[in-house]
Amino acid sequence: MSIRQKGMMFLIISFALGLFGCSISQIIPATQQELAQIEKSRIFNKDFALVWASVVKTISEKGYTTLSQDKSSGSISTDFKVTKEAFMMSAGRRHKLNVFVEKKSDSQTQVTITPVFQVRHTDKAEWAQIHGGRTAETIHVEREFLDAVQKNM
């Protein structure tokens, strides 16, 4: 086999492996143990105004676009943020956050996060809710957000 043929074969194999590797991008369901560890809310020993400002700042820093926010009711909804682009045959993933900030007392405020996760199986497919619940790659979304809120205070 000539060097040119070897080079061409290498390119074909590399392309095939890359395409196959992308196309089998799996959605691995979260285990029961992982699901039990999801931190959906946290109480901060700070007043409402400080926590609200920290939540708003965190949303911006994390790259979310705010669709609606109502400080009097404590609710904020973001638009979807793509966390994994669909490439060729691979699955794209995105999520949005619904955040609720609630004054518990003058010195305590609770933040609760309800994320919505969607997937599409090719770059041309419609987005759909992830079937079977949470995936292993999504179980840290709330904790990372709440940690960032704490850091921003």
Q: Which helices and strands, and how do they pair?
A:
Elements (H helix, E strand, L loop, with lengths): L2 H21 L8 H5 L4 E4 L3 H14 L4 E5 L4 E4 L2 E4 L7 E14 L2 E13 L7 E2 L11 H11 L2
Antiparallel strand pairs: 1-6, 2-3, 3-5, 4-5, 5-6, 6-7
Helix pairs in contact: 3-4
Walk me through this protein's architecture.
- This protein is of the alpha+beta class and 153 residues long.
- It has helices at 3-23, 32-36, 48-61, 141-151, and strands at 41-44, 66-70, 75-78, 81-84, 92-105, 108-120, 128-129.
- Strand 2 (66-70) and strand 3 (75-78) form a beta hairpin.
The number of distinct helices, counting runs of at least 4 residues, comes to 4
Domain count: the total is 1
Let me know the number of strands.
Answer: 7
Mean pLDDT: 81
| Beginning-to-end CA distance, first to last residue | 65 Å
Order of helices and strands: HHEHEEEEEEH
Strand content: 25-35%
Give the overall form.
elongated
User: What proportion of the residues is helical, as a percent range?
Assistant: 25-40%
Q: Tell me which CATH architecture applies here.
A: 2-Layer Sandwich
Radius of gyration: 21 Å
| SSE-based structural type | alpha+beta
- The residue ranges in which pLDDT falls below 50 over 5 or more consecutive positions are 15-25
CATH-assigned fold name: Alpha-D-Glucose-1,6-Bisphosphate, Chain A, domain 4
The biggest beta sheet is recorded as: 7 strands, antiparallel
CATH top level assignment: Alpha Beta
